[in-house]
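[job 4471] stage=fold_predict status=RUNNING
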Amino acid sequence: MSTATPMSSGPRVPLAAEAPVEVVERKGVGHPDTLADAIAELASIRYSQHCLSVAGAVLHHNLDKVAVLGGRAVFTDTDGVYDRPLRVVFGGRISTSFAGQLLPVREILEQAAVDQLRAALPGFDRMRVEFRHETTDSSKFPHWFAPRSLADLPERPRAFSNDTAYLVGTAPRTATETITLLTEAFFRQSPWAGSDIKALAVRHDQDWTVTVCVPALAGHLRTAAEFDDAVTTAAAELTTLLEQRLPGRVTVVCNTRGSRIGPLSGQYFTLSGSAVDYGEDGLVGRGNARTGVISGAHGAGNEATFGKNPVYHVGKVGGWLADTAAAAIAARFGPCRIGLLWRNGAPYDQPAFIQITTTHSAPEGDTEELVRTTLARTDWPDDLLTGRYLPHVEPFDKLLDDLGPVTG
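[job 4471] inference complete, writing C-alpha cells
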C-alpha cells in the first residue's frame, strides 16, 4: 500500500502557460549537446535490444556519460576540409558479458553513434570521426555488470527506483514550447541550413519574440550577402506563419551576429551542419529535457534521461511515468503538471510524494486515481525501446497544426 499523498494545501504554483512571462529554448538535433544525448540514447536502445535477443532481458548499463568532442575544419571562403576528427567518448557503466559470453559492446555503441550522427548532420560525409571507449564494469557487487544468469538482476521480476529523485510531467505542450520546436523544423526545410539550430522563444502575455541562430551548410550559398538574404527572408516567412495562428504580436530575429560583409566562411558556416566543426563539445544532460525543450517554468529538476537504463533507472522510468500520467490527466481535465518523488529502493507504484496541479478545477480523488493507474503500469520498456525520447525533428506541418487554425 502506497504511503504517498498528493499535495492538497499551500499556495498553488501557476503552470507555465499561466505565467505572464515564459521562456523556452530548443537546441537543435545538430547541437553538440543534443548529439551527445542522441548518441547515448540510441546506444542504450541498440544495446538493450541486443541483450533481449541473447539474454532475454536488458542487462545493467547506464550510458548517460557520452561526450562529443569537436573536431576542426580548415575553411576556404565557401568550403573547407576536416583536419582534426570529431571524437565520441563513451563513458558510464555497462555489462560486457552474460553467462560467460562476451557481448559486442564496442561495435554496438560505435554503430549507434555513426547512425545517429549521419541522421542528425546533413554534412556527415564531410567529417572525420574517431571513438574512445571509457566505459567500465566496476561495481562493489561482483556480478552486477557480469551476470551469470538472470538471477543476478535484482530488479527482476519487480523494478524499483535505483535512486532518490523528483520527476515532473506536463501536458499538453504550451504554445511557446511548440513554437521553439516549430522554428527548428521550419529552417530544416531549407537545403542551405545546417542542423545546429538554436531557438529561444519568450512570451510576454500574448506576444512572442523568437530568436534563432541557423548555420549555413557548405555547398549551397556563395557569399555572406546571400546567407543574410536567406535568413532574413526565412525569418519573415516564419513570422507570417506564426502571426496567422497566434493571438498577439510575433517577432522573429535570426543570426543576430551575422553580417553581409566578408567571406561566407566568416559567418555561421559549417561543413557538417554543426558547430562541432569549430571544436565545440557536447555532453549528455546539458541541453534539452526529454520533452525536447528547455523550459525551467515547469520546475522539472535536472535528471538527464538519455542513455539511462530503460528498465529500472528512475531518471528514465520515473520520467516516463510522470509524462504518461500527465497525458492521462490532461486528456480528461486539461493542462496539468504532475510531480512524483521516489526514494531509493521504492517500487514504482509507491512514490513518496505525488503533486497534481491542474488549470481547471478537478476532483482530487479522480486525478489521483488516474495517476495511480499509471503508476501500476509496467510496460514502459516497450515504449522506451521504440525511441520515445530519442532526439529528432518533428514534422513541421504537425507542429503548425498544433498551434491551431489560421485566425481571421
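[job 4471] summary: The CA atoms of residues 99 and 317 lie 27 Å apart.
[job 4471] exit 0
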